[in-house]
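MODEL INPUT / OUTPUT PAIR
PAIR INDEX: 1
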Amino acid sequence: MGEFLTWAGDYWWLIFPFGAAVAAAANGFGSWWRKESKLRHQRRLELIQARSQAKTAELAARAQAKAIAAGRTGDEPIEELDRKGRVERLRRLLDTHDEVTRRWLDYELDVAKLIAFPTMSDGRQPLTAAFLRAKKAADALRPASADARIDPETLAEYRDAVHDFEVAFDVAEQDARRVRDSGFTDSERRRLERARQLLQVAVDQSATASERQVAYKRVREELDGLIALSDDAIEVLEHKVAPAVER
């Protein structure tokens, strides 16, 4: 015991470095423990949320099954129930078809959007060309209305066409927003930027008729050879510029 006290008296200064090391280790362990606790809490919340969503989906499915069972009567034939089911599925497909078409027209008829995302109007781009082909196929298979009498095979064919149409548009749109004008040269990008600025003047209600008319003509000149504007897009733009521009 005396020897230990003698040693401690000679080396008492070691308390400071050892104490700092112990404190640092304790602090690191505390930080790690808090981080692990936070992760465990987050995983627990995610598990609870997943279980809640699964339970909600299960209850919704049960409610739908009960509603279908309650709506059936002994006098209603199975064929009529099948027909009603096909009508509902067809209505949903037509709604999806219309929605994707509307999203496409947002680009097709908006010159400002075409300047910002030029590949959406360029049929030479592989993804845009694939979308246009999918649109053509879906349009060709589209029934006249949700009440149209079509067999299950035709319905399945139209369903696949609408799905391809929707996916192809999503892919083309994502790519257009990613690449923007990167496929153009520096000179062409400057022309696009000038066209964008001129377009703002052309549709500016506070600008004079002369200013808007000149800006409109210069927009057409800057975009010539860069972006193909449809007749409908030109007509929409002219309506925005009118009455400055004589048609």
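PAIR INDEX: 2
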Amino acid sequence: MREHGQHVPSAEQMALWPDISGNTINGLGETTPRNPTPVMWHPPEIIAHGPVQTWFWEQGVKQPEIFALRAERQRVIAEADAPIAAERVEMEPAHFAARIADAARAGGADLVGIARADPSWVFEGYTFDFPWIVMLGVAMDPEQLKLAPEVPAAVEVVTKYTKGWRVARHTSNWIRGQGWRAQPHSGPDAGPVLSIPAALAAGFGQLGKHGSIISREFGPSFRLASVFTDVPLVAGQPIDIGIEDFCNICRRCVDDCPPGALGHEQQMVRGERKWYVDFDKCFPYFAETHGCAVCLGVCPWTKTGRAPELSERMLRRRANGTTSAPRFG
């Protein structure tokens, strides 16, 4: 187990922090539902933590490999979208959804799902006029994540965010070629809508105690990308793979989180009770380790090939009335 809760952020970084807590901005403890407020990964001029965000990006200059990969990602982001075809292709929504999934997988997606856009996911200050979100998942290398918070783990995350942009643009361009509007998006920038609720609605998995989605196929070892579109589609459905039962018992990510940003109890956030990551504890360490990812690296669902087996065992144990989590070496 790593040293827990002992990290002391640099004075240089903390001098840039605003007076307001990131947890307050996120709506921690609020019992009334509301739209999210931008807190990080938005244009720095519109967020209270803008100077801290800028400081984080500047740290990448100290790691030439990370700096080069981020520069490559910016080149991919800047690529032009394909024009929207003048003649619109019409087909049944279910058929269109299947064709889009085929196009996404041909472009490199490992997970594909569809969510009907929910106005409650839109960040305050943004407009969003697309009725559908095609969610895309790009698998990461679990062996690299296990090295977190060392640089190779950060390299893996940056690389897969870039791949996410390529997959999203490939999928978006295919839709545009059918005569419909489509806009690609990938991380780490937040964009106009929350990605995690959309991915949960699309059936990617369930939220884990570490605040990331755990999928049946890859555990938490994947990054999200998306395409916003107006093509008529069919929505996926949320799924239950046993994460709630498992995380209620497992202590691994909480005990191994260096800044002590995770907890064993779900908390109320903007009217919803869920697992929550303490922003004010997490981000200072995150910023000084090029993205941390310790919680993903130690998650029992991360090991290659383990997630499908864990899901099967958890669902079987629930059916049998067993409350303990299965043990794995």
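PAIR 2 NOTE: The chain has one domain: 11-320.
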